[in-house]
Design brief:
It contains 3 helices and 8 strands. It is of the alpha+beta class. The termini are far apart.
Length: about 130
């Protein structure tokens, strides 16, 4: 993937996407460069898939397809904490769309879309026990 922060040129970032059936609605993305983790985001799996087809998101994370028919990309915008002047940290990551699609297909082999389960009773028991 490639990262563009502010008005800088793009530069390559190592990105590790992972999926865990215990958290079936999320994909974890870890972005690193020169051996240093730059950011770790938990992304909504369905939103990621929808972003390959059209713009989605209105908050801290926004996805949209971009590029030409020869080179299709997924544009991922991430907004962070506010600066003292009121502006927000902002970074854009570009991913090769076919690679993201292939990753998502592998997650569907683990948990099919619509087959996600949330164990609310277990979650509530854990929250009550920790309280």
């Amino acid at each position: 993937m490639q990262l563009q922060a502010g008005d800088t040129d793009r530069f390559p970032v190592l990105t590790h996407l992972s999926y865990d059936a215990d958290d079936p609605f999320a994909v974890t993305a870890v972005f690193s460069h020169d051996g240093r983790v730059l950011a770790r985001w938990r992304l909504d799996r369905q939103m990621l898939a929808d972003g390959l087809r059209g713009p989605v998101g209105v908050g801290d994370v926004r996805f949209s397809p971009t590029g030409s028919s020869r080179w299709e990309e997924l544009r991922m915008e991430f907004f962070g904490d506010a600066h003292p002047d009121g502006a927000r940290h902002h970074a854009v990551v570009y991913a090769w769309a076919p690679a993201v699609s292939a990753f998502l297909r592998k997650t569907y082999d683990v948990v099919a879309p619509g087959g996600e389960e949330v164990h609310v009773d277990d979650f509530l028991a854990e929250v009550i026990t920790d309280g």
